[in-house]
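Would you mind giving me a polypeptide sequence along with per-residue structure tokens?
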Amino acid sequence: MTTQPAQFDGAKILLGITGGIAAYKAADLASKLTGAGAVVRTIMTECACKMITPVTLQAVTGQPVYTSMWTESEDFKIGHIQMSDWADCVVIAPATANIIGKVASGICDDLLSTTLCACWDKKVLLAPAMNSKMWANPIVQQNLAIVTEQLKFKTIGPEAGRLACGTTGVGRMAEPADILEAIAALL
């Protein structure tokens, strides 16, 4: 399936990026979404900012990038609630074991986890990415079951292939083009 530029015309996508090595793919995803007509705002965790820079996401989306709960919004609204209300769809790519665990446990200790807590009634797509041993961990799978069964979050991936640690297994984040198609189906 080829995504046509008008397919996302005006769709408001909130992209959450966490600190997995697959964060570099998020820039390509953001670019593809923007090119397809979506308005993409980005929340990056502190660890994500060590993988890629907010400037990269700002450049490909033309929109602000949020990295802290303590950044004042222009209209003095509470940021995580404002972003939750704004978004038509929330995409977390990569979705690390950490963010999946935080959401499953209701932990709100940064802007992304706090925003996700307020998005329980939104269309949310997670693109998990982690080492295959982490992916196979029963607690990670239990946390994933909580967010998919109780919160009705959707997932895409992970895929099998070469991992950042040099091993081969399930844990690679889905490719941006595939995530784009999953977002289109969700919307």
The domain at 5-186 is CATH 3.40.50.1950 (Rossmann fold). The chain has one domain: 5-186. The chain has nine helices and eight strands.
